[in-house]
Amino acid sequence: MSDPDATLSDLLHETRTFPPPPELAEHANVTAEAFETAERDRLAFWERAAERLSWTARWDRALDWELPFAHWFPGGRLNVAYNCVDRHIEAGHGDRVALHWEGEPGDTRVITYQDLYGQVCQAANALAELGVRAGDRVAIYLPMIPEVVVAMLACARIGAPHTVVFGGFSAEALRTRIQDCDAQVVITADGGYRRGAPSPLKANVDAAVADCPEVRHVLVVRRTGQDIDWHERDLWWHEVVDRQSREHSPDAFESDHPLFILYTSGTTGKPKGILHTTGGYLTFVAWTHWAVFDLKPERDVFWCTADVGWVTGHSYIVYGPLANGASSVMYEGTPDTPHKGRWWELVEKHRVSILYTAPTAIRTCMKWGAEIPAEFDLSSLRLLGTVGEPINPEAWMWYRENIGRGECPIVDTWWQTETGGILISPLPGVHTTKPGSAIRPLPGISAAIYNDEGQVLPRKDTAGYLVLTEPWPGMMRTIWGDDDRYREVYWSRYPDAYFAGDGAKWDTDGDIWLLGRVDDVMNISGHRISTIEVESALVSHPKVAEAAVVGAADPTTGQAIVAFVIPRGATRTGTDGEQFVRELRDHVTHEIGPIAKPKQILVVAELPKTRSGKIMRRLLRDVAANRELGDVTTLTDSSVMDLIKEKLPTASRED
Ligand code: PRX
């Protein structure tokens, strides 16, 4: 958890404001009137948003709401892939570029809507040939190559929910996800490029499916040409997909048909399979993408730099932009390969007009220096966005000045895997922005800030817990296979509202400032990782007796993982200790993936606990942040903290 008090005091000093550029405001897709329309009749407002899509049967009602389960547009039928591809061709836009794809090594592909149609049809036909039927789950573990978009749309086309697993996750993480949703087909690649080195995707799949007898086929895209092992269940994508027909007539599915499951960390060791369905989700991502980014599909070039393995990639690389007929840039690699100006080179090359990225990436670019983007022509940019974590005013200003020429509005968009799409954000043609504020809930979104007792706080200079008090079309349907956990996690803290797990504040103008997580979920470079997940990984190491993990503030990644570990047997010190710490970091990488590798591991003899045996994370956070310790009177033995503090100088740290 970040420190809400520190964040708050930072933000209280922020007084700069930036009104919308008049030219943008004049032609904006959405004006202030939308708030009044939505206020008058929220459901009618979302019905109008749904009308932007093509349905084969209109819905009977806007919403069936049995708290906490929402069924949007019941009776409505549609096909997501048809909406994202076919209908744009029918409207005469087949030649429009859907994806300007750039591989890390410098290879490129330009894919028009017509091309995408042929490829999605072929992949859909291939999946059908492999016996995948509507409702069957397909796991996708691919790098950022066009096939990942094709695979997702092919699944959507035949009604087979996909679960995309981020390519940086380990074989173990992949295995638990495949097993949890019982996927029978896995789509992967031999590897993908990251900083020039091919990643071992296929090898990870081999290790994962060794324990998944239900997996019948592994479809492998050849990307790097690296050596891989081959098994009976394996099939090359180019052998199975390329020979298929480039036509496929899609079925329409009920609005509530499952579209995808995306796993995200919660406060337990077991990731939650967030289920999104068809009609509500697509309505919501299409509308929010069009409204928040003021998308003009005929002339904008949109670039969301996220990985498709996270929800940002699902909603704002794939489903939102394609449903709107947008032209997007998609880039395979890291921003510093082969040089630190790679992103800006791509903005210049493709005349990107809307850029959507994460605060952590902005802070990294700040560290590299403003002279790098200054070498490129960024004059095509007209709108900038951020997502994933609170953005500090300094990074916001840097982004505006050095990337946005001091002219582009910035939309700081707050949302979650669970919310499907953006809920809180300025509208670029409507709102005056402030560095660090996500400004207002979108039209049709009912956000509130509650205090501990569940009372609504007035929208003026108050801080508490962010909640959503009415359903919205993009909201999750449930946790895959676990309705009780869905109720428990999101709807038990306050019985009448969705509890987001974030602290937030209304300022004196009634604008919202997000203050970070209020639970045991960390936010590392905009990626959610639970403390308990990392703890479970650490204690699964044979030499670890106990472990506690906290997030500490980090100037680049927002938060960094700090672990306190009690070893089995004698405490390991000196060189032996360093080796031990290295082993543990590798072990976490193996169990979860490199994103979960602790930045710092403190080997300690004891951990501070309450009388009931609960680890006092607040104190550990204090140690991690190297601050004065708080009240220790509820500890069983307050000297434990001295022991921990003594350990600080010998701690291993990776810089
Ligand atoms: O804490 C909030 C933070 O990211 C969490 C959601 O993480 P995830 O489901 O991985 O989705 C990330 C991309 C949508 C939230 O609970 N968060 C996301 N956007 C913002 C944010 N915190 C502050 N400001 C934001 N704009």
From TrEMBL:
EC number(s) per entry: 6.2.1.1
Residues in AMP-dependent synthetase/ligase domain copies: 91-480
Domain Acetyl-coenzyme A synthetase N-terminal, chain residue ranges per copy: 33-84
PTM per Swiss-Prot/TrEMBL: Acetylated. Deacetylation by the SIR2-homolog deacetylase activates the enzyme.
Entry keyword annotation includes Ligase: yes
Cofactor: Mg(2+)
Protein's UniProt keywords contain Transmembrane: no
Region (Disordered), start-end ranges: 1-20
Keywords: Acetylation, ATP-binding, Ligase, Magnesium, Metal-binding, Nucleotide-binding
Binding residues for Mg(2+): V539, H541, V544
Catalytic activity, reaction form: acetate + ATP + CoA = acetyl-CoA + AMP + diphosphate
Family: Belongs to the ATP-dependent AMP-binding enzyme family.
PANTHER family: ACETYL-COENZYME A SYNTHETASE, ACETYL-COENZYME A SYNTHETASE 1
Identification of the protein by name: Acetyl-coenzyme A synthetase
Taxonomic source organism: Amycolatopsis pigmentata
